[in-house]
Specification:
CATH class: Alpha Beta
Strand order of the largest sheet: 5-4-3-8-9
CATH topology: Glutaredoxin
Distance between the termini: 60 Å
Order of helices and strands: HEEEHHEHEHEEEEH
Helix content: 40-55%
Largest sheet: 5 strands, mixed
Shape: globular
Number of domains: 1
CATH superfamily: Glutaredoxin
Radius of gyration: 17 Å
Number of helices: 6
Strand content: 15-25%
CATH architecture: 3-Layer(aba) Sandwich
Amino acid sequence: MIKALFASLALAAACACVAHAAETAVPTAGAPAPDFTLNSQEGKPVSLRDFRGRWVVLYFYPKDFTLVCTAQACLFRDSHEELARQGARVVGVSMDDTSSHARFAEKHGVAYPLLSDPDKRIQQAYEARQLLGMLPKRVTYVIDQKKKIRAAYHHELSAQKHLDAVRAVLASLAG
């Protein structure tokens, strides 16, 4: 009976995942990047259109002050000037509130915008959620000057691999 219950739950979860996937199209290379306006750690609204004419490295992360998220934020912080020389601006997004982002940015010296998406609307638009659409995941997008997605990097826990993927994409598009 317990096996039958688990099998039923697994089937229901699989059906829900298929239904969710059918409802939301994952933005892919060549697709227009969904626009957004979210508040930064400074409490100021930041929109994708604010970066018109610039490359954008838009990364989604689960939570401030967690091990891998902190490593990822610091890796992008340490590479911020390098990426800026390539014409790219870095923007991080999570569902943490702006005060959490402010404490996180101050503690770790993060100078680029960390945007608060508490209702997960932008995470959903960029398909940065998993497991029935409830839990956040780590996703990084490279968006060009015309606001088209040029690359998306999903399904990897390693913060370094996200940064390496961004560097490779920017290098290949520059040359």
